[in-house]
Amino acid sequence: MVTEYKLIIRTGTRLGAGTDSTISVVLVGTRGESAPHVLDKRFHNDFEAGAEDVYTVSTEDVGEPVALRFSNTGPGAGDDWLLDTVRVAAGNRSWFFPFYRWISGGTTVEVLEGSARLPQQVQSEREALARRAQLQARQAQYVWRPPEATEGLPGALDISDKRPLPKDELYRGLTEGSYEVVIAKTLASIKLHLPMLAKTWNGLVDIFDFFKGIEMPKLAQRWKDDLEFARQAVQGINPLHIQSISRLPEGMPLTDADVHGLLSANETLAQALEAKRIFLLDFEILDDIPMYRKAGADGVEERRWAPASRCLLYLDDTRQLRPLAIQLGRDAEKAPVFTPNDGEHDWLAAKVYVRCSEGNAHQMVAHALRTHFVAEPFVMATMRNLPDPHPVQKLLRRHFRYTLAINEGARKGLLAEGGVFDDFIATGGPDKGHLQLGKKGYQRWKLSDNKPRLDLERRGVLDPAVLPYYPYRDDALPLWDALEEYVGGVLRHFYRSDADLAADTEMQRWWADLTERGLPVDKLPCRELTRVDDLVDMLTTVLFTVSVQHAAVNYLQYEHYAFVPNAPLCMRREPPRQKGVIGPEDIAEMIPSKSQALWQVAIGRALSSFGDDEEYLLHERGWREEFFQEPELAAIRDRFVSRLRAQLEAVNARNARSEVPYTVLRPDRIPCGITV
């Protein structure tokens, strides 16, 4: 019996999405396949970017369609076609084929029917074959790097001239172009407005001239203030270090006389510690990490420093945090403890060194490692082992867009030998201290460290009674809870019992691939993937990491780093070893050089940029790409959106009362994944 199938085909909207190539289709169903049909309407420009084209295919009844096999006859990359979706209708029946991927010129691709199914729910051998064929093709594209290439770090995608980044992963431009273009434009704008800047560099004065052509960070007017320094510990670029302590750190000699007048009336250090009014920022991870040291062509050696510093903060009677004491090293004999009772320049220098320590730890550990690079193994395992109709693939896919591309860009442009980090951060350079720092952070890390409630509890700052003002905590926890409910709702819709997960052969291969090549099993919450609760916990952590956590440690980079004296990423002099010898001219000589400052401003601006096609957790008019079509899943998504809207209202209300708003964890400004 001949059946008419109506195909409603939507082409993507990205630049170059359309094609003039000849496109043909074969309908693949449970009863067989149609002959190839060329999709071409007379006097019509088919498959234009953003267009929706309708075609009718008459063929023998193929049964339940399980795939559409598209062939693109174009000979080159210019003929590539970005297919978004296809809706197929026959009589009163309809099927949906979401794709949102490229079909390259000269290739044939099967687009699978979009109903979400576990492999044990597949009802026909033809559908099972289509799933296996899709994974075989993906495994040829998404190949793990050799273990020796990622030793001491998470597994990653292997990219070479012979096997480039898959086109589906290619990085899109930012609003002002690619992030490399943002860097170039920023450097050009700064240099344009500094033609008369003297060769003599006075960083504390001349830095204001950098911002004649670009926006001035808001903190520039208050960066020296102690309250501002403490504020950055709870809502700055790296709000993950502050911890409550009940005793002084070992090797940090501090007496009541040292802090005279800095505590409440008649309060001793011991009493303040017992009352949980003392907090610690500790960057001991920098201990033993080699710093930049290299002789130039003239024989002059350049050195940079970022000490393993630590800082005590005090919660005063007004319930505000203030820095109380700073030690720029671990050796009490070589590293004196500075307090606000010391000279103005001593105290300012001490705070600047702490911010430099924080910056180096932030860039390589909190940011690069604990978001970008620990996410990559999950992207790889998902692309290699879960076909498009698998519910976990559908759940994760939007949150993994562009992550492989930006990670590769960071490896080549920032981290590689001769990369940008060698130009201006303290741990860069010939000894590759920044890579050693990343490996040291990875050695200590487990996925559970990225769970905010556990992390806050471990640091003793979960309770608002202990630390009243902590915007990162107060914004992150409701978002975690919303994500956990959303992920749990989706997964438990398909996995009605632990037995369902154990029987999911595709997910078991995902787990084996992840643990054999991506992340050692001892860094994950379970040794075997047999409990749905463990999968919910793990995937919630992954989605929180790539969205909320990445936003927290990334999108304040311009505000935090661009005004370089606030947080220099290298210091050009060794930390002071005695008090009373620093003057204002010394601080200007300590902070980055003009060229280093240029890089720091440009990189901060680029990494704080949003894409022109950015998709946010709470996205206006809904997410653009919808992978689930089941009504029950729509209800789960709508509940998630409702919780995000309520959280946005709460954030806006608090920020309206705040002297310094904290906006990076607004749900409508948190990208779904790591895109920069």
Q: What does the model show?
A:
This protein has 676 residues and is of the alpha+beta class. It has a domain at 2-114: Sandwich (Lipoxygenase-1), CATH 2.60.60. The protein has 19 helices and 16 strands. The chain has helices spanning 125-141, 179-192, 203-206, 226-235, 269-274, 344-385, 391-396, 403-415, 420-424, 433-444, 452-458, 471-494, 498-502, 505-518, 532-554, 557-561, 584-590, 594-607, 631-656; strands at 2-11, 23-29, 32-33, 37-38, 52-60, 65-72, 81-90, 93-103, 107-112, 243-244, 278-282, 293-295, 301-303, 310-315, 321-327, 337-338. The strands form four sheets. Strands 2, 3, 4, 6 and 9 form a five-stranded antiparallel sheet that branches. α6 (344-385) crosses α14 (505-518) and α12 (471-494) runs antiparallel to α19. The longest helix is centred in the middle third of the chain and has 42 residues, at 344-385. The chain is elongated and about 95 Å long. The model has no long low-confidence stretch (mean pLDDT 93).
